[in-house]
Amino acid sequence: MWRRIVVRSAAVTENIRRFSIAASTPSIPSPCIVHKRGADILHDPWFNKDTGFPLTERDRLGLRGLLPPRVISFEQQYERFMKSYRSLEKNTEGQPDNIVSLAKWRILNRLHDRNETLYYKVLIDNIQDFAPIIYTPTVGLVCQNYSGLFRRPRGMYFSAKDKGEMMSIIYNWPASEVDMIVLTDGSRILGLGDLGVQGIGIPIGKLDMYVAAAGINPQRVLPIMLDVGTNNEKLLEDPLYLGLREQRLEGEEYISIVDELMEALHKRWPKAVIQFEDFQFKWAFETLQRYRKKYCMFNDDIQGTAGVALAGLLGVVRAQGRPISDFVNQKIVVVGAGSAGLGVLKMAYQVVSGMTGTTANPQFYLIDKNRSGVDPSVAPFAKVTDEVKSLGLREGSDLLEVVKKVKPHVLLGLSGVGGIFNEQVLKAMRDSNSPKPAIFAMSNPTDNAECTAADAFKHAGENVVFGSGSPFENVELENGKIGYVNQANNMYLFPGIGLGALLSGAQIVTDSMLQAASECLASYMTEEDIQKGKFYPSIGSIRDITAEVGAAVLRAAVVEEVAERRGEVGPNELAHMSKEETVEYVTTKMWYPVYSPLVHEK
Ligand SMILES: NC(=O)c1ccc[n+]([C@@H]2O[C@H](COP(=O)([O-])OP(=O)(O)OC[C@H]3O[C@@H](n4cnc5c(N)ncnc54)[C@H](O)[C@@H]3O)[C@@H](O)[C@H]2O)c1
Ligand SMILES: O=C(O)C[C@H](O)C(=O)O
Ligand SMILES: [Mg+2]
Fold first, then answer.
1. 499, 552: one domain
2. Which residues bind a divalent metal cation (predicted)?
3. What is the span of the domain harbouring residue 375?
């Protein structure tokens, strides 16, 4: 079935600016207090420096005799790891992609388990190569194979069996300070469905991006799996499955356990920002509504995705050589009216309805195979009009029919269905009303993308602009040019949203903070980038864009008066910072991996 959503107008600044960020590495790293000695330090990845412990530190910490005598520098350790990584790449050449990706994940994971500082150094310096391993798409494969890959726990695991005891269990976490929490119940992992406890890979991957992109101190992040059972029959029958082997809790039982966990988290770390990730549709909106006015939390799939998609949609308008206000004239077919699809729609509506001076309506055509009628969350701004009927469309029109009749400017997939933008659908995009039709195949991981980059350029035409949730190689076009692939992934926003909320001490994450994030991303790209079909920064500059987004979110929190004092800087000081000073401030707050001198305290 289809629905037409009519929204009003767009309030978006066409503010194209970039700042270069000064390096934030302090010249002398601050000391780090450690309460352990000897072998316990070597076995703690937060403090371990492997062969990098200087002799004086080995003396002071009781490490003499526990390490080979030669001290290896951080740079040498880095080189050594990269060499073994490169030789793994060489040795696995020609093997199936999944095998290679998992081998790469294993070598990185082993380092993560052993020496966090070195791990984050190699991750940050090689983010372009390593993001597809620790994040989408390989993280999906890791979740699917979690029982076999499991070696050491990471993060916290709460289960339905912990009901009534979460407040005390929370104190089992060894760190007294936590800044960022990513929480999942494993019910909708990427486009892979219900993976139960195996979904823990997602919060881990998201928090790795928080460290890499937002410079959150890895000692202050906490991935959480809330295991309320699984409805995945294959997992329930698997004797090696590591989660609860029972059906998911439902209704009141479910929500009361999430309530308890949220209360416990807030009690112990009242200033932490909590990101909900990969919850199935029926709980994603409900939990967001339930907690967003009470805790500093947001739902990445609904809100982070919306901001990224909206920034892309605004880029599409610019790529057509039109002013941003022309967004209201775009026809956008969205496939998948789930958390992400409806999130995009809601945010577009909010942004557009903030603009005055035009009565024109951008047109969203929402297609979903499961839901009929208008979803209550978008009902206030949904309207089935005569105009739609006059296009020859009806309830139940299929995707191809809709694309043929509507001739959309943008085809946006958030359905989780791999290949649904098939040859016919893509060919129909050749008749788009846009000189540069846009195709966003945003579902993850790669096999679940609505189409590949190569197919988009081949069937829809070489003039299309393309974005995908998972990375694809750029495409060599027949005209000798390059078909550029944008990674349309919420990784460009969630780290900045979390960072901005954290540094502002925000009590809650408001709509205007989220809109500020999206506008910041939209305005980040230069006109030249846009003309090349680039709507998002390269992943190599993810720290740079995250600092900008973080600053924009922080400033919005201050303006909305939800900011609170956090450490030495409070809302008053923040309010007096210029935009550039805020970016600078945010940048200086980012953690960067260096070995800190360890100071032992009993
Ligand atoms: N790129 C990103 O940053 C990003 C962010 C969030 C979600 N996603 C991806 O988007 C997908 C959906 O996520 P979600 O949270 O909205 O999930 P969801 O389960 O809430 O929504 C998916 C929707 O697609 C619909 N659908 C399924 N098959 C369909 C079909 N053949 N035709 C039309 N509709 C169909 C379902 O009925 C459902 O309503 C996932 O693959 C996820 O990985 C990507
Ligand atoms: O995890 C990602 O890569 C993006 C998004 O949050 C998703 O659920 O697909
Ligand atoms: Mg997600």
1. yes
2. 277-278, 301
3. 2-17+303-489
pLDDT at 391: 82
Listed residue (297, 243, 289) closest to 271, CA to CA: 297
Q: Which of 49, 104, 121, 206 does the annotation list as catalytic?
A: 206
Are 196 and 334 found together in one domain? no
The residue to mutate among 133, 200, 278, having the most atoms of ligand 2 within 8 angstroms of its beta carbon, is 278
The binding site for a divalent metal cation consists of: 277-278, 301
Residue 376 has pLDDT above 80, yes or no: no
163 is catalytic: no
Q: Do 482 and 500 share a domain, yes or no?
A: no
Separation between Cα atoms, residue 179 and residue 498, nearest integer Å = 9
* pLDDT at residue 568, rounded to an integer: 82
* pTM for the predicted model, two decimal places: 0.94
Domain end marker among 95, 116, 144: 144
Three-state SS string across 181-205, please?
EEEECCCCCCCCCCCHHHHHHHHHH
Strands (E), 76-235: 156-159, 180-184, 221-227
Considering its fold, how many domains does the chain have in total? Answer: 4
Q: Kindly state the tokens that stand for 519.
A: 């506008």
382 secondary structure, DSSP code: B
Q: What is the mean pLDDT of the chain?
A: 92
Do 400 and 485 fall within a single domain?
A: yes
ipTM at complex level: 0.99
